[in-house]
Automatic annotation (TrEMBL):
Residues 4-177 form the AAA domain. The lineage of its organism: Bacteria, Bacillati, Bacillota, Bacilli, Bacillales. PANTHER family: P-LOOP CONTAINING NUCLEOSIDE TRIPHOSPHATE HYDROLASE (PTHR13696), PARA FAMILY PROTEIN CT_582 (PTHR13696:SF52). It comes from the Bacteria. This is AAA domain-containing protein.
């Protein structure tokens, strides 16, 4: 039975999609992974498949509309599959509103139920805004990882996201747990970045992952070229993410 993990924060540009994609890539080396793109920008889709979002005829919208994944899964490798997203995601709020399901925000959870035994992990990339997609993703998740970019705006968004998670837990998904807070350092030498990181560790203690991801140029290139571990340089820049994935696995498999 798959463990479902969402990645989110109600702010864009914090490394959420990049982290979801790289986590899926690393996990797929030893596990069966399905990555679900809930963001109409389709960045996760592009990063993992190398294809433009407009090239996909079947996407997450079709999954939610049919309440199943038939013909909607793209095979990247034998152990890494993707449910793509494109501009059709803009129609998801209307789809949820018109759904005949008594528990409308369980649409994603219901859609994935029949394939959970086919994967070890299902990773869900949430959009940066608080919208139906975010609520659908959290309602379907066993765990959620929240990103903390060492930026004042991201820091303030952290409480908002955690409050949303708590509301979803109380109203729709009592099993939802916070896997942890992953810090992304914009500038490891900047005093403000270090100050924000210290503040978060003081406030949230063991909820903060020990792993810290630093912004690196090669990681940004992965968003264009796709993720690779073929060269020594690539493997080196993935090291911090590998440490995070190891820590994540330990937390979620421990329960």
């Amino acid at each position: 039975m798959a463990i479902l993990i969402s990645f989110g924060l109600q702010k864009g540009g914090v490394g959420k999609t990049t982290t979801t994609a790289i986590t899926a890539f690393i996990l797929s080396k030893t596990k069966r992974v399905l990555a679900v793109d809930l963001d109409g920008q389709g960045n996760l889709t592009r990063m993992l498949t190398g294809k433009r979002k407009s090239s996909f005829e079947k996407t997450i919208y079709d999954v939610l509309k049919a309440v199943n994944t038939d013909n909607c899964i793209t095979v990247v490798t034998d152990t890494l599959h993707v449910i793509a997203a494109n501009d059709d995601a803009s129609k998801i709020p209307g789809l949820v509103a018109s759904s005949k399901e008594k528990q409308r925000l369980h649409l994603l959870k219901l859609s994935l139920e029949s394939i959970q035994n086919e994967y070890d992990y299902i990773l869900i990339d949430l959009p940066p805004a608080l919208a139906e997609q975010t609520l659908l993703g959290l309602t379907a998740s066993d765990y959620t990882v929240t990103m903390l970019q060492t930026d004042p705006f991201a820091f303030h968004a952290l409480d908002d996201y955690l409050e949303t998670c708590q509301l979803v837990k109380e109203a729709y998904n009592p099993k939802l747990k916070l896997a942890g807070i992953l810090s992304v350092l914009l500038n490891s030498r900047a005093s403000l970045d270090q100050s924000i990181l210290r503040k978060v560790r003081d406030d949230y203690e063991e909820l903060v992952f020990s792993s810290v991801v630093k912004r690196q140029a090669r990681i940004k290139e992965f968003t264009i070229t796709g993720i690779s571990d073929r060269t020594k340089t690539d493997r080196k820049v993935l090291t911090e993410y590998t440490h995070f994935v190891e820590e994540l696995i330990e937390r979620v498999e421990k329960g």
